[in-house]
Design a protein that fits this description.
Elements (H helix, E strand, L loop, with lengths): L2 H16 L10 E8 L2 E17 L5 E10 L2 E11 L20 E7 L4 E9 L16 H13 L7 E10 L2 E10 L10 H15 L31 H31 L2 H30 L12 E2 L2
Antiparallel strand pairs: 1-2, 2-3, 3-4, 4-8, 5-6, 6-7, 6-9, 7-8
Length: about 325
């Protein structure tokens, strides 16, 4: 027996490990949600067509584009991106989640190993086969979807209102851009309640805690403030990080001071001497702990990774 005899089987096994796991093929019609690399991605109401799937040359990014059509008119789009076999899953926060010019940019939590954030934006760049894509603003899957729409003479909107969501942990990462057409009138992104409902369900789908029985509500229709079965994690911006660190400092210091005083009193048998010995740690310790906590939170956070999308995202 030689390794050559088993080469086809080894190649097939390697391909199975490294290839992205899409549970659908191009042209499939899907409702409510789609399985992508172990993540169940919820979809708004209606019938969605899987139009294109791509894998980056390095294998670091798997992309999938879905379109919702009414006749020959595109009424919504979804660009789904997952970390491929050649990627670190430490994507960090999406850079858009740190922008101050967008209608909404929020971070629920972020660390060196997991994160969750959301943003809304407008995409006014009209993508056609003549549009330059060298600046990296366009995901290859999205460009392929646009080309497919042109071949089929589907009517694409000139601009989009977009909701972006990113969730990651040590085992994987997913980023989803839900896009809705801007036609006549002022361009308005989906409201905060819709974003929260979609965000909650994306987080649950990332952890396989939902099924495909219920779609996301339409972004223009009535919808619940939250679709999750459990409350979402608290926002993690600069103020809440500081507040959490302060409260951790207070509770930690109370416990440590009590232990210090108890140990000193047991050793000395004198309450005044025990209190004097504990006073230094009581005064200096909180500042040392708080500085350590803030430095750890700052330096341990994963750097943000920018992913291409539907075009240039702007505030309005």
């Amino acid at each position: 027996m030689t390794i050559r005899r088993y080469a086809p089987f080894l190649a097939a096994a390697l391909l199975a490990v490294t290839a992205p796991s899409f549970a659908a093929t191009d042209g499939d019609i899907i409702r409510n949600g789609v399985d992508v690399d172990g993540t169940l991605v919820p979809l708004p109401e209606g019938e969605w067509r899987l139009v294109s799937q791509t894998v980056s040359r390095s294998g670091a990014l798997n992309s999938l584009t879905m379109l919702r059509l009414s006749g020959d008119t595109v009424t919504a789009a979804a660009l789904i991106q997952t970390a491929g076999a050649g990627s670190s899953t430490a994507w960090g926060k999406a850079p858009a989640c740190e922008r101050h010019d967008l209608p909404l940019a929020r971070v629920r939590y972020a660390s060196d190993h997991d994160g969750s954030c959301a943003w809304t934006a407008l995409v006014r760049t009209v993508v056609t086969k003549h549009a330059p894509a060298a600046d990296g603003a366009f995901d290859p899957s999205w460009l392929a979807a646009v080309a497919t729409a042109e071949r089929n003479r589907w009517r694409m909107p000139p601009a989009w209102s977009l909701v972006g969501l990113r969730v990651s942990d040590p085992r994987g990462a997913v980023q989803i851009r839900y896009a809705f057409p801007i036609q006549d009138g002022p361009a308005q992104p989906p409201d905060r309640a819709w974003v929260d409902a979609a965000w909650d369900r994306v987080e649950l789908g990332f952890r396989r805690r939902i099924d495909r029985s219920t779609p996301l509500p339409d972004w223009r229709g009535p919808h619940p403030a939250s679709a999750a079965t459990t409350p979402p994690p608290a926002d993690t911006d600069a103020d809440s990080l500081l507040g959490r660190a302060v409260w951790k400092t207070v509770t930690f210091r109370a416990i440590v001071t009590t232990l210090d005083f108890s140990s000193n009193y047991m050793a000395l048998g004198n309450a005044a001497s025990a209190a004097a010995l504990s006073a230094f740690g009581f005064v200096i310790g909180p500042f040392v702990y708080l500085g350590h906590e803030m430095a750890w939170s700052y330096f341990s956070e994963a750097p943000p990774v920018e992913l291409p999308g539907l075009g240039i995202e702007v505030a309005g």
